[in-house]
UniProtKB/TrEMBL annotation:
This is Endonuclease III. Binds 1 [4Fe-4S] cluster. CDD domains: ENDO3c. Belongs to the Nth/MutY family. Keywords: 4Fe-4S, DNA damage, DNA repair, DNA-binding, Endonuclease, Glycosidase, Hydrolase, Iron, Iron-sulfur, Lyase, Metal-binding, Nuclease. The keyword Metal-binding applies. Residues 38-186 form the HhH-GPD domain. It comes from the Bacteria.
Length: 222
């Protein structure tokens, strides 16, 4: 995909989702880190339903360490992999207290050292909490990037991230991340994407194939 096409795609998504934003509800970098950790293999909607009570009960890293692991597990039981995530939260909180005086580290290197925090989570925190341009590749970003030919179908998550960073202006990384997520979550869905309404269908090989197949099916049955 050349620079002009990338520009067209980015501008179109900006028109479709001008208010795209992080949908995980949080009040500070610490809560955002916990929310993103919980969101692995889980929808933002489910995470928000859990954190509305979780963040009232636990305000500081120490609060998470003041309860037995089993109690924390129970508090996030609706979240997938809740046992592993509960253990990681308590380990994370211990490191944050001992090494960072109770504050979430402000560097990517510091974040990825925390239990349960991978590159994607670190990118989300850096961009949304600390204003550092970053592109976090979740399932939506990965799917949309590959469908549009920005990345190859067999590219790893890291390869997708690197290609987006090369092709998208740095000052647009964070907003592009949000818009790709909104585009994938509400338009270019994994199942039943809205290809018939897509303003950038011309750039999507998979979408054009879907539309041709649909037309063929209708012509056969008519």
């Amino acid at each position: 995909m050349n620079a002009a096409t990338i520009r067209h795609v980015l501008d179109t998504m900006a028109e479709m989702f001008p208010d795209a934003h992080c949908e995980l509800i949080h009040r500070n970098p610490f809560e955002l880190t916990i929310a993103v950790l919980l969101s692995a293999q889980c929808t933002d909607e489910t995470v928000n339903k859990v954190t509305v009570n979780l963040f009232d009960k636990y305000r500081t890293p120490q609060d998470y360490l003041n309860v037995p692991l089993e109690e924390l597990e129970n508090d996030i039981r609706r979240i997938g992999l809740f046992r592993t995530k509960a253990a990681n939260i308590q380990k994370l909180c211990r490191i944050v207290i001992d090494k960072y005086d109770g504050e979430i580290p402000h560097t990517h290197e510091g974040l990825v050292e925390l239990p349960g925090v991978g590159r994607k989570t670190a990118n989300v925190v850096m961009s949304n909490a600390f204003g550092v341009p970053a592109i976090a590749v979740d399932t939506h970003v990965d799917r949309v990037s590959k469908r549009l030919g920005i990345a190859k179908a067999d590219d790893s998550v890291l390869e997708v991230e690197k290609k987006l960073m090369r092709k998208v202006p740095r000052e647009e990384w964070t907003m592009t991340h949000h818009r790709l997520i909104f585009f994938g979550r509400y338009h270019c869905k994994a199942q039943n994407p809205k290809c018939d309404l897509c303003p950038i269908l011309e750039h999507c090989k998979e979408g054009k194939s879907r539309m041709k197949a649909a037309l063929k099916k209708r012509s056969v049955t008519s």
